[in-house]
Amino acid sequence: MSDILLHLLPHVLASLLYTALGIHFWQTRWRETRQPLLTLPMQPWERAAIFGALAVQGIGLYAGLFSAGGMRFSFSFALSLMLWLAVLIYWLESFRSRMDGLQPMVLPLAAIAALAPALFPQLREVANANAWGFQLHFLTAMLAYSLFTLSALHAVFMGFAERKLHQRAVTRSLTSLPPILTMEALLFRMILVAFCLLTAALVSGVMFSEALFGKAMAFDHKTLFAFASWGIFAALLVGRRVYGWRGRVALRWTLAGFMVLLLAYIGSRFVAEVLLGRL
């Protein structure tokens, strides 16, 4: 029992840290006060605190995934890893752009995701985890998932900011966000990188499926959703390049592609592991 609690401790601690940081950023960047609407850049101690939460969660993820001598995985660890990478990407981006106003929405979601392995600790062994083909597929897939998750959150932020601007409502939360054009440029930069990673994940899955598992890649619902999401993001990038899509059109396509991609693995594993009790 003590070993189980020890393994769960980093996930719980990371969730508490993300929660505290989320509350802090909401109070200092979003909470309406009678003070003048001044921007407050991210402070060094705030970056250090986020990095500390990332380190604690990273320790828990590594211990859960690799401590048994091989590799184990589940939907809860996939969700936690996705948000861990998303927070890490935002943390790195904060050194070149203003990300402080986006933290009040990212950090609470990271807190929920960090707690998922503690609530659903069941793990299953991953076959062929040492094969480089599988490692390439896994790494590109998780990075793509994380970037698309961040892109979806970013799209929500942009929709929020645009609505406030159209309403001519200058609030503290709006002034803490980067300019719309900066957010839009970052959004499509993330989508382009994520699309390339998703393409690499799908190609590696097709190429190495027979070598690793002795059979061709199965065209199941997970594969169908993954390819459907790839098609949606491909259409979005083409529409952006050819027709200049932006604003609400781009945001809708981004969210649609993300929801389909989410069903490809996280949704299917949640149904199998939690609702049906299969590992």
From TrEMBL:
Domain Cytochrome c assembly protein: 78-275
Keyword Nucleotide-binding: no
UniProt keyword list: Membrane, Transmembrane, Transmembrane helix
InterPro entries per record: Cyt_c_assembly, YpjD/HemX
Positions of transmembrane segments: 6-27, 48-67, 73-92, 104-123, 135-160, 181-203, 223-243, 250-272
Pfam families, per the entry: Cytochrom_C_asm
Record-linked PANTHER family: INNER MEMBRANE PROTEIN YPJD (PTHR38034)
Protein name: Cytochrome C biogenesis protein
Organism per entry: Candidatus Accumulibacter contiguus
